[in-house]
Amino acid sequence: MIAGCVLLAMSGAAYAVTRVAIDKATSNITQTTLLADDARAPRRTSAPSGKKIDGALNLLLAGIDVRPGWDAGARSDTIMIVHIPATHDQAYLISIPRDWRVPIPANPETDYPGGTDKINAAFEFGYRGDGTELEKRARGFKLLAKTLHAQTGLTFNGAALIDFQGFQSVIRELGGVDMCVDQRASSIHLAYDRNGKIVPIKFDEASHRVFDVPPGGKVVVHEIGCRSMSAELALDYARIRYGLPKTDYDRQRHQQQLIRAIVTKATSAGVVTDLGKINRVVTAAGKAFILDTQGVPIVDFIFTLKGVAANDLVVLKTNQGNFAEVKINGISYQRLTEESLEMLHAARDGELPSFVAAHPEMVAPKNG
Q1: Topology adopted by domain 4-173+276-362
Q2: Which segment of the chain is annotated as a signal peptide (predicted)?
């Protein structure tokens, strides 16, 4: 969507000129194979030009928190599906609960024998072991995609992986985003020092306590209300789940809100008319994202989906944003309701718009 701003800004240009410009702007985006074979949808592009992709599309997005020198593993705590109907004029966003209890297939590459766990653990079981960081992330994503396919039958036309630090860099190049805080939230990641400067802090999950708040400083608290947020504050708000009434479901909603805010900012007049800013945003995205387009040029996705930018992103709620808790041996898991599974099956079958029309209660409000 961000790369599509290049096309929107050059909408009067000839196709060949526009294509060259987009190819140049997106050439530094890292691409590799992220999707397991059984989770890959058949490649569908129009012949002979190949500039338009046919049919409905499903894209799998995952966000991880991996930092240099950090040995805490790499779980995909953000998992989202973007569905584009065959009309290519709308985008639907579905968040998958990180604590969904699912069977995870065996992964011989990392000697993982298979088992039942939270779905966010699938990435970790594929990520562990030797290899370059890119190889490990690709393995993790493949096992995540394979796990999701086994539970829903969904196959994907493309995939994107991003870490939280990279995500922040994209928002920073956009100049921040406009967010509406719908519930007071105390950060477990950031604090202000005595001079008002934002500094990182640590959080201990066992004791639910924060550490390293500087003397005379205080934890960042997001108060209710709408405001422009810096990259640091916007990402921080979207990552908080501790202390919120619905914990991860509240976080899912805030993450979806942030995605919508990024799309709104990226397609605003102040961005699409500034080619320098577009280039900086796309460059930041290129460094932050790892993409799998199944060999389809990025420019083909942009031309196919250019009509999506004209319509607001439709955000959907699994379990209608409510807990469907299962406790096993003292560990809390989530299950998906039949209605939520039907929604994922509708995305699988290219019938999501009809499902949403029949189930308006699954649509999340724009600012909450």
Answers
A1: Nucleotidyltransferase; domain 5 (3.30.420)
A2: 1-16
